[in-house]
Specification:
The protein is built from six helices and eleven strands. The chain is an alpha/beta fold. The longest helix has 12 residues. The relative contact order is 0.16.
């Protein structure tokens, strides 16, 4: 499917798939959406010294970058192991045109942007001291077959249910829940009632939270 680069309201860029009429991020602001959903309502709520993060899916790599940006502000004794799934990686031209390295002033982020895209798939790579990244090229529905450590935090960032309804059904959430420890957090931009009911059925404590700009609500869910 053909993808094009579009600039969102906060100046950061995203990819748009015209065949689906769907973008990778909110047109109200890709960067501020990533920070709000996955950092403010995700990473900052986990206090463990070592955190295993599972992301569905890698996409443009923006969520990895905002996670590293927050990681660099923390105690250097902290460690993050980041596992991210993606079936359709973006290409080199798109990586360059998105220009996410220009969104950050920290030199570590500027050099890290290309590194996270160039690292081998299916291999755990130390991107920075105490921050490892493993990109896994697969369909999300293959999650149950993957050998992952117990997950503390899930970034549930799939395409919307309008274009990929199978990614918001009971079967995939069941696989995700199976990878999470008790007390682990799942955070997503979605606020659909059906998602809330599925998570509650899977024994999660679900909380509706204020959404990023342009979206009234989003979901946080803790596994019991």
């Amino acid at each position: 499917m053909k993808r094009e680069i579009r600039t969102t309201s906060d100046g950061s860029k995203t990819l748009f798939i015209s065949d689906l009429n769907e973008s990778y991020h909110s047109h109200h602001g890709a960067l501020q959406e990533a920070k709000h959903v996955f950092i403010e309502n995700g990473l900052k709520l986990i206090n463990d010294c070592e955190i295993n993060i599972l992301e569905l899916g890698f996409g443009t790599g923006l969520n990895v970058l905002v996670t590293i940006n927050e990681f660099l502000k923390t105690d250097k004794n902290h460690k993050i192991n980041y596992f991210t799934l993606e079936k359709y990686p973006i290409n080199e031209a798109e990586i360059l045109e998105l220009g996410y390295d220009e969104l950050f002033t920290d030199e570590n982020l500027k050099t890290t942007y290309s590194k996270i895209h160039l690292t081998e798939w299916e291999k755990s790579v130390e991107i920075l001291p105490n921050f490892t990244l493993m990109k896994i090229k697969c369909d999300f529905h293959e999650l149950s077959t993957l050998n992952l450590p117990t997950v503390d935090l899930v970034y549930y960032d799939c395409f919307g249910a309008r274009v990929q309804p199978d990614l918001w059904e009971h079967s995939l959430f069941t696989m995700v829940a199976g990878k999470m420890r008790a007390g682990a957090l799942l955070t997503t931009y979605s606020a659909k009632g059906s998602v809330k009911r599925i998570l509650q059925d899977l024994n999660f404590r679900v909380e509706k939270k204020a959404g990023p700009p342009g979206k009234r609500e989003m979901i946080n869910a803790r596994k019991n």
